[in-house]
Amino acid sequence: MRRLAFIIPVVLFLMVAAALGLGLRRDPSILPSMLIDRPIPTFDLPGLTPEDTVGLASSDFTGKPVLLNVFASWCVACVIEHPMLLRLQAQGVTIHGLDWKDEPAAGAEWLAQRGNPYTLIGSDPRGRTGIDFGVTGAPETFVIDGHGRVRYRHVGPITPEVWTEILQPMMDRLETET
């Protein structure tokens, strides 16, 4: 009985240590998405200003691959990412924006100051559409194929390395599938 009282805590400790060890090997920048290879959630969002007659809707994601970039005026990392988005737009990459958990006027002002890389923009001040996508923070970028399915989720700023090593090859491949 004394031996069992000693062995049980040791076995439990080893099991917990093994579980923690496996968790430490996981890359924290890779957050899986339940939406991979599934259609995007249905949504219809207004633009950033009352003058915007067009916002962003799930029906806008058909025909060709696009990036859906989640941003906000309060997002520090979005400032770092923004010049890269402007370069991608200049190269002809279609990027739609989701202004997440932000006042629409603040998002509009932020883009007016820095430039607008987005073809279409939707305002999601309460974050409901972001929740449907599984957004955990800004910036996040989703690769959406020409059939409106999520093919990849990138958490954090798009850097030149992320574009050339991950996103561009994926967008090129999806372009040929359409």
Automatic annotation (TrEMBL):
Q: Where in the cell is it found?
A: Cell envelope
Signal peptide feature range: none
Principal subcellular localization: other
Keywords for the protein's UniProt record, in alphabetical order: Cytochrome c-type biogenesis, Disulfide bond, Redox-active center
- What Gene3D superfamilies does UniProt report for this protein, alphabetically? Glutaredoxin
Q: Which SUPFAM superfamilies match?
A: Thioredoxin-like (SSF52833)
Tell whether Disulfide bond is among the UniProt keywords. yes
Concerning its family, UniProt says: Belongs to the thioredoxin family. DsbE subfamily.
In Swiss-Prot or TrEMBL terms, this protein is called Thiol:disulfide interchange protein
Species name for this entry?
Brevundimonas denitrificans
Organism phylogeny: Bacteria, Pseudomonadati, Pseudomonadota, Alphaproteobacteria, Caulobacterales
